[in-house]
Amino acid sequence: MATVLKGAPVAAEINQELSERITMLRQHGINPTLCTIRVGESPDDISYETGAAKRAAKLGVEHVKVVLPDSATQDEVIAAICKANNNPAVHGILVFRPLPKHIDDAAIRAALCPDKDVDGITEGSLNGVFTGSGKGFPPCTAQACIEILERTGTELKGKNAVVIGRSLVIGKPVAMMLLQKNATVTICHTRTVDTPTIAKRADIIVAAAGSAGMVNANYLSSGQTVIDVGINVNDEGKLCGDVKFDEAEAIVERITPVPGGVGAVTTSVLMSHVVESAVRALK
Ligand code: NAD
Fold it and tell me: What is the position in ligand 1's atom list of the atom closest to the CA of 170?
């Protein structure tokens, strides 16, 4: 039976480290501050916002909540971003996406200051992920995958890692981050020929396809560590990952659950970016 890599202990470790850094910042008169910008009343956005607010309150990170109506114009959203960009008391800005259809996502990303882009959506942040320059911040979910792997003692150097999915939010950045850790990385996507055979040969699988239970026994072999990023709803209406957990648990060495895996680490990573941004501003 596989060891289940729960997110909670990883998040607790990150939170503990953050508490120490926040105390240090406060001693310098700085209150690390996250500004969230939500347009409309999407339940997913509200749920993420609530989770972030709770985590911030527990850690002592300030939270400024900006909520605009669904009818807000692109200029109004950009104005809210610019206000937060120009406010030295704000260290991190999170814009909930997808935005309503009448707003151009690229224009929103371009408006955000990369130094405060704590969820890695700007070209500046992605540039940092790809070059390793340290500019901006990687997307929180991608970094949550790396935190789980590293903090549970998974060797990455020289290992074969297969990432299933090539989105800018998860697949591509997580592949670059694994590469930076000296893994040998293959990215599989919808046009890949025979993903199961490629995945079966991997030491590490990061499943981020957004397809319920797609990764079944055909993709898996013994000794593997599997990070399941997917958040899907199955035919019975239950939350599930991209990996068929029951089949995987009997084959692989270690696996993250859904829920309670990657998702449980994401808000802690978000807070760590806010704190890091405040530390960078202090320097
Ligand atoms: P996306 O739809 O933008 O990208 C999915 C990628 O998977 C695409 O690149 C596509 O080519 C690839 N793909 C789809 N089906 C495939 C298949 N059968 N074989 C190989 N590749 C395939 O999705 P995303 O935004 O990257 O999110 C992926 C999943 O992660 C979703 O389930 C999403 O809900 C979840 N997610 C989880 C968290 C978290 O905190 N755990 C955060 C964000 C997103």
Answer: 26
Mean pLDDT, range 164-174, rounded to an integer: 97
Ligand 1 mean position, distance from CA 122 (Å)? 19
Q: Spell out the residues 6+ positions from residue 225 whose beta carbon is closer than 8 angstroms to its own.
A: 5, 149, 154, 203, 204, 205, 252, 253, 254, 255
Give the binding-site residues of ligand 1, using a 6 Å CB cut-off: 141, 164-167, 169-171, 188-190, 192, 195, 208-211, 214, 229-232, 262-263, 266
Q: What's the mean pLDDT in 133-149?
A: 96
Candidates 52, 175, 41, 64; CA nearest to 119 is 52
Which residues are CB-contacts of 217 (< 8 A; sequence separation ≥ 6)? 244, 247, 248, 251
User: What CA–CA distance (Å, rounded) separates 274 from 278?
Assistant: 6
Which SS3 state, helix, strand or coil, does residue 126 take?
helix
Average pLDDT over residues 251-260: 98
